[in-house]
Specification:
It contains ten helices and two strands, in the order H-H-H-H-E-H-H-H-H-E-H-H. By secondary structure, it is mostly helical. The chain folds into two domains: about 1-90 and about 165-215, D-Maltodextrin-Binding Protein, domain 2; about 105-150, no CATH class. The protein has a two-stranded parallel ribbon with strand order 1-2. The two termini are about 20 Å apart.
Length: about 220
């Protein structure tokens, strides 16, 4: 994970042996030419574009790309992300959150709309129907709205398998996350993905800076 607590962090965890090992593995794929570098991927239009143009043979993504791949008439399928020997499956439990403003003048209508989005005849039918969004409710994911959906690729059970490993540990859910990421983390990760620095050389310094920032909050 990024922090000791994704909601109320007190320390950065990017310098742990496990985190450094993970960054070394991913950076190694890029350094060996087995994965596209971040800058090259962005310049080429993102993961969906390079997959459709057959510049890469696979991508790691959620269901949001399904409609585009279907519209392009692609012959593709999905599978669970492999895990390392002795490792565990960890899928980021982020997703899209529907919220209602505390200062809304039409709270009743807003609440009715949120309820509609979570109803079998509403959002649980609309979004899974196109394959673009994995249902947030297990019964919908395991039933016809998802598993019986012919718009999804044959291996769609992979999304269920990944969901079983959902965790908030890989995310950050606190108010100053944008500042922490933009100031301390993201610039260094850009250097790692570019092959300019080694994870073990720079991540401890990142955590020192982040820990100092958190201590002063």
């Amino acid at each position: 994970g990024l922090f000791d607590d994704p909601f109320n962090p007190t320390s950065c965890q990017l310098d742990s042996p496990e985190s450094i090992g993970a960054f070394e593995f991913i950076a190694g794929l890029m350094n060996d030419g087995l994965a596209m570098r971040d800058a090259n991927l962005n310049q080429a239009g993102g993961d969906s574009a390079v997959f459709q143009s057959e510049q890469v043979s696979m991508i790691i993504q959620n269901a949001s790309r399904v409609p585009a791949f279907n519209a392009a008439g692609m012959n593709y399928d999905v599978a669970p992300v492999p895990t390392a020997p002795g490792g565990i499956r960890a899928t980021g439990a982020g997703g899209a959150a529907w919220t209602m403003s505390a200062v809304s003048e039409k709270k009743d209508l807003a609440w009715a709309f949120i309820q509609f989005l979570q109803s079998p005849e509403g959002g649980l039918a609309i979004y899974p129907a196109t394959g673009e969004a994995f249902p947030p409710i297990r019964s919908a994911a395991e039933g016809d709205p998802w598993m019986g959906n012919d718009n999804l690729p044959p291996g769609r059970e992979a999304f269920l398998i990944q969901a079983e490993g959902s965790t908030t540990a890989t995310g950050a859910f606190f108010g100053s996350w944008g500042e922490v990421n933009g100031t301390f983390i993201s610039p260094v990760l850009t250097q790692i993905w570019a092959g300019e620095v080694a994870p073990a050389d720079v991540l401890p310094g990142v955590c020192d800076a982040v820990d100092e920032f958190l201590a002063n909050q």
